[in-house]
Amino acid sequence: MSDLKIPRAKVYFPASAWLAGVRALARGRIHRGPELEQFRAAIAEAAGRRHALLTASGRQGILVALNALGAQPGDEVLMPAYTCRVILWSLLVPGFRPVLVDIERDTYNMDPRAMEARIGPRTRFVLMTHMHGRPADVGATLEIAARHGLKVIEDAADGIGGYWRDRRMGALGDASIMSFSLYKNLNGLDGGAVLCDDDELARRMAEELEALAPTAPSTATLVKRFVTAMVTSFLTHPLVFSWSGFWPIYFLDRLRLDVMQKLLVKLDDEERHPPGRPRELFERFANFQAAVALPQLRTLAADNAARRENARYLAELVRDLPIELPAQGTPEQWDIYLNYVVRVPAGTRDRVISECLRAGVDLYPGYVECLSNLKPYPDLAHECPNAEDLMARKLYLPVHPPLGPREMRRIANALRRALPPAGSRRLE
Length: 428
Ligand SMILES: Cc1ncc(COP(=O)(O)O)c(C=O)c1O
Prior knowledge:
Layout: H1 15-26, H2 34-47, E1 51-55, H3 58-68, E2 76-80, E3 82-83, H4 87-92, E4 97-101, H5 112-117, E5 123-129, H6 138-147, E6 151-155, E7 163-164, E8 167-168, E9 175-179, E10 192-196, H7 199-211, H8 219-235, H9 238-243, H10 246-254, H11 259-270, H12 279-282, H13 287-293, H14 297-318, E11 333-334, E12 340-343, H15 349-358, E13 369-370, H16 385-393, E14 394-397, H17 405-418
Parallel strand pairs: 2-4, 2-5, 5-6, 6-9
Antiparallel strand pairs: 1-10, 3-13, 7-8, 7-11, 9-10, 12-14
The structure holds pyridoxal-5'-phosphate (PLP).
């Protein structure tokens, strides 16, 4: 695949998921069916938890966990300043107060010491996120939380299949959430799970989920998501991408038309509050979604391992470049690199993207944001230098399968041309 273009990301939606979706449609198993319970049990088992409930989204999982753990309006929830902004919905809609904490420079996860410094009299909860699939500093976070009597909700949205020590992500903290949205490693046409071990908590979570009065998505909505997943997974295959998606990206870059940036600014203005009753918080996970997600559990471990190996090799190849790499995964910190995110020198990002595009490598700054200075949320403002610096300099490097060593060398060569070290060499 050496001459093919390298897409920035992958949508995980293998042929087995397409077939399973078509089968579920043909049998009319849209909202109810046996796959719901099979998938629910498989998710609990995969995380090593006693209980799992399927939710409409990771966001709904956070809301359900907070309510079941007894959160009251005004309670403060410590969370990383670098994460997906939509998580704020789960806190702001019911009236909880997000308190942003700066991240560690090289893991992009919440810094436990900065977290402890932000604990106040109203602090009740910690959202412990494994950002980009890198395990948080679980030991320190749990120890500090226990000392201050805080409940911990583990955000394993990015970490399905990863480990911290010998414990799986999704099995840490009082409750855990997962996400099965389009850009995660397990695609459930949106959706998620909330997990725990405590029987009483599980009962309360089930009640809370019911109390949200979730409505079933229409069949047309589910089919639309199914087609979107099929089409995007098809378009992000290197072979198809080389002949289609790459070229608009390439020409927009040559013309300096930063459409994405304009779109983000527009979102910033529009997303002051989530829309009235966001479906992500008030919908029900459907059997059709379970049906397409189930077969993906078979390939999850291999996909995670492939990204890990690509990230390890790519790091080796670019180590001498003026690029800041994230901390390397270790047997203790079993990173699954859902995204491989690096920092380029300040002011070079656009040029690096353009030069890499010329070499057929599509890079982008990614969708995760620094929330500490978002225009629509002035109340959240807090100095978070590591999160702000990452936001200004980050670049996602593609490490997803089917990319392999050859593509990693092409990416490294493209970066080497864009950001040469003293006395550079090319890798064939
Ligand atoms: C780390 C993290 N947590 C939670 C979420 C929310 O998941 P969902 O979109 O399923 O609500 C996301 C969103 O992508 C995320 O990246």
